[in-house]
Structures are given as structure tokens and as C-alpha cells.
Amino acid sequence: MMELKDILYKVSLTSTYGVMNVRVAGIAFDSRKVAPGYLFVAVKGTVTDGHDYIGKAIQLGASVVVCETLPDTVNDEVTFVTVRNSAHALGIMASNFYGNPSRKLKLTGVTGTNGKTTTVTLLYQLFTNLGYKAGMISTVENRIASEVVPATHTTPDPIQLNQLLDRMVEAGCSYAFMEVSSHAVEQERIAGVKFSGAIFTNITHDHLDYHKTFENYIKAKKKFFDELSGEAFALVNADDKRGMVMLQNTKAAKHTFGIKKMTDFKAKVITNSIEGLELDIDGKNVWFKMIGDFNAYNLLGVYGTAVLLGQDPDEVLTQLSSLHGAPGRFELVNPGAKVIAIVDYAHTPDALQNVLDTIAQFRTGNEQVITVVGCGGNRDKTKRPLMASIACRLSDKVVLTSDNPRDEDPMAIIQDMQTGIMPTEARKTLVIPDREEAIKTACMMAKEKDIVLVAGKGHENYQEIKGVKHPFDDREVVARMLKMFLS
User: Fold this and answer.
1) Which residues contact 93 (CB under 8 A, 6 or more apart)?
2) What per-residue confidence (pLDDT) applies to 274?
3) Are strands 233-237 and 197-200 parallel, antiparallel or unpaired?
4) SS3 annotation, 180-217
5) What local confidence, expressed as pLDDT, does residue 487 receive?
6) Is the separation of the CB atoms in 438 and 303 below 8 Å?
7) DSSP states of 53-119 as a string?
8) DSSP per-residue codes, 150-187
9) DSSP class of residue 22?
10) Are the C-beta atoms of 440 and 482 separated by less than 8 Å?
11) DSSP assignment, residue 406?
12) Do the beta carbons of residue 325 and residue 342 sit within 8 Å?
């Protein structure tokens, strides 16, 4: 239980109605989760408006309602508080309710189109190996020290987020690392959260179904940096042309990393092979188990972050050299098999190009690159032809298939993809909507030393079709097919 006045600390109120001297048992913005004595926050969402559920929340026992507009009929037994932005107020109230846990941790947020999960995973592994208790909030999973908590969103809603951070504090964590999606920034999920640092990896074509324009997408990422405090650090990839844009209005201490430009944290790729990466980082040669130029950036960003968080540079590099990346990110399936099989989460044009460019760097030219790729339903349609075009240009054979079709017809998605394929490249493509059959066919076509890339779903262990998540793991299917056809 907490006093209402303490929950509303630092929330900008426009009006109050009713008794303010009340104690609150919990906070909810989903009316179905309201219990007696709860504070209900009416948030205007992208699909539904919480103001339409104020009556239901009161029926379930809400004693306080925070909203932007008062309902036509006000219940005298309920306290009403109005604010300009309910979503923003929710973030602050959730932080207050859970004792502002982000202020008790050194919390670093990572944003960007690609590399967020790998960066957060590496930071969590690194600080754990350095002897600290750490927390992680990512697309793949959340971690509270050694405890694994399933993830449902890249960045949880404000209540779930502060619950997780509070549990990290209780578990004795001193550091926490989290992915910060553009949706989360736009929807105020991180309002009220204090960050000790922020990292920008890169920004490319994605989420235009939500943001509508690329400019809006950039602004959402930039807002994260604009709202950092002067006590925080901001570390950006200066080789991305939007990197310096992120730093324009931030109060945080500004730092850069890169490979091509003069930066605060600098790396040079010495060796890039299927076995790993050799990098010169700030004048020190180090071998890493991870593959590809894109991972050189991820490793460099992690190194810079750790140094900015006060860790010894040499010890950081020593520990980083032993780490693996996040599950489903350029993950080799059955290493040492006759065929090189790679599963990757690449679901944007830039990510797919990065993966295929990396494959091109270590292939001999005597083998085939066979790519299995699809695009998600109910998401940005403009990237579909780009994905198919990149796959065809950089592969010898391409199997167009279903990803997570959600509510769309898989064939309609594939037809959108086909508009990006040149007539001269059409002969190298196959259309197999059933994803398992597509993977099976790619493995059947592969000869010894060929490279099979299965892109789009990575770590996911399901396929979402018409609102139902069916069990499906690319890695398991690929391993089974390799054993069947190439054992």
C-alpha cells in the first residue's frame, strides 16, 4: 500500500476530484487487472482507449482513476486525477510505486534498429563474468541475476518494467542493461526511469507501419537521448550518419565509437572469418568468437560502455574475448557439419544485407549460398521487396517462405516480396509458403560446403498464424533436416 500523494510525486496534474488522502493497493492500466483499492490509469493506446474502460475499472474496485478527460458521470466514492498525458504519468507513477528502482541501479539502455539484443546480452554476460550481479531486459529473455524471466516485448510496459527493476534491486544487482525500442520511447514506457547511460547502435529501414515515416522513427530514437540527465553518458556509433544526430540536444556526456572515423573508442578489423573476429581495439589486438563486421560494432559498443561504467579496459577485453552472442544471431547450427547452416534474426533489409555480406567475406566462391527468407505479417510492407531483392542479389538460390504471417495471407506477403525481384533473378527463387518445407528444401538442395542461411526468426520458438503461436524453432528444424539429408 502507498499513499496517493507519494505515487503522484513529480506528476503534472491538471485537476483533482474527490479525496486525495487515500492509500493505493496497486496500479493498472488494463482494466482486467484492476483489484479493490487499485489506481487505474486510462491510457489512449494505438488500438483501444483506456477512457472507455473507466466504468469497468470502478466496478472491479478501483478507488482512484488517473485520466486525461473526466467521464460524463463522476462517482463520488472514487478519486479522479486528470493529467495532460496519461501514458507519461503512468511511467512516473509506476516508478514511484516501486520505489524508483532505476535510481538504485546503474541502468544502461540500448537503442537502434539492429544490434540491441546482442549488445545487451554481451553487457549482461560481461558484467556477470566481472563478478557483478546484473540484470537484463531483452527481446529474447529477461534476467534477474541468474534467474530467467520470459520476455513478451522488447521493452516491457511501465508497470512490468519497474517490477523487473525492483526485483533486480532486491536480488542485489548493481547493474542492469535493457533494450529500448522506438515503440517504447513513443509510448512513454520508459517515462520516470533514470538511465546511467545510453547506447545508439544504428538506424535503418524498420517499423514504418507504426511510425509512418523514417523521420518519425529517427525522432523516436533521438527522444531517448534528449531526455537523458546530465549525470548520464551517451555513446553513439559515429559511423552511422544519424549517430551524431542523437547527440545534438542531449544533456548527457557525449562519446563515440566506430571503425571508419576518428572516435573515442576505435576498432580496426584485422581478421574476419567463420571462426571469429580479430580486432585492434584502442591499440590492443584481441580475438573474439563472434563473426562479422556488424559484431565488430557490437563488441566495440560494449567495450566503450564498460569503460564508461568504470571497468578496467584490459580486463573488459579479456572477458569479452570469451563471450558468445545472443541466441539466434548469426548462430551456427551443428558446427563442423558438411554444410554450413546459419540461423539469424535478420528481419530488416539492413540486417539481412549485413549477414549476407558477412557470408560473402568468408565464402570461397566455389559453394552455393542458399537463403530461406520471409517477412512478417501486419508489419511494415515497404521492406518486403527490399528483403527479397537483397536475398536474390547476394545468394545463389533463394526460397521465399512464410515468417510470422499473423493475420495476413502468407502468399500475399510473398507476392509483395516478389515485386522486388528482377526478372533475371526470378529463376534463382523458389516459393514455398510452408516454412518447414522451405527449410527442408534448402537443406536438400545443399551440397557439401554449401552455406544455408535461414533468416527472419532467429531465437523465436514459435510461428504466429491467425493469432495463435504454433511451436516452431528454425534452429531445431535446420538441425533435424541436416541430420536427415547430410548425415
Assistant:
1) 7, 8, 11, 27, 39, 41, 66, 192
2) 87
3) parallel
4) CCHHHHHCCCCCCCCCCEEEECCCCCCCHHHHCCHHHH
5) 58
6) no
7) GHHHHHHTT--EEEESS--SS--TTSEEEEES-HHHHHHHHHHHHTT-GGGGSEEEEEESSSSHHHH
8) E-SSSS--HHHHHHHHHHHHHTT--EEEEE--HHHHHT
9) -
10) no
11) B
12) no
Q: How many CB atoms lie within 10 A of CB 27?
A: 24
Q: Which residues pair with 421 in a beta bridge?
A: none
**Three cell numbers written together for 203:** 538506424
**pLDDT at residue 211 in the model:** 47
Strand order in the sheet with 141-144: 147-150, 141-144, 134-137, 175-179, 106-111, 197-200, 233-237, 253-258, 265-273, 276-281, 284-288
How far is it, in rounded angstroms, from Cα 91 to Cα 161?
A: 9
Number of Cβ within a 10 Å radius of residue 285: 12
Q: Tell me if 121 sits within 8 A of 142, measured CB to CB.
A: no
The set of cell numbers assigned to 3 is: 499513499
Nearest to 183 by CA among 248, 89, 122, 113: 113
- Give Cα separations from 40 to 7, 35, 88, 384 (angstroms): 12, 9, 14, 40
Nearest to 138 by CA among 122, 159, 116, 160: 116
Give the number of other Cβ atoms within 10 Å of residue 441's Cβ.
19
Is the four-CA dihedral 207, 211, 214, 219 of positive or negative sign? negative
CA distance 10 to 12: 6
Nearest Cα to Cα of residue 379 among 197, 211, 227, 128: 211
| Single-letter amino acid, residue 24 | V
Looking up cell 527490399 gives 386
Task: Report residue 148 as a C-alpha cell.
Answer: 530467467
Q: How wide is the angle at C-alpha 366 spanned by C-alphas 400 and 332, nearest 5°?
A: 55
Whose cell is 520458438? That residue is 461
Q: How far apart are CA 120 and CA 56, in angstroms?
A: 39
Query: d(Cα 19, Cα 5) in Å, to the nearest integer?
Result: 11
With 0-12 / 13-18 / 19 or more C-beta atoms within 10 angstroms meaning exposed / middle / buried, residue 363 is middle
Look up residue 264 and give its three cell numbers: 573515442
Q: Which residues in the chain show pLDDT less than 70?
A: 205-212, 214, 486-487
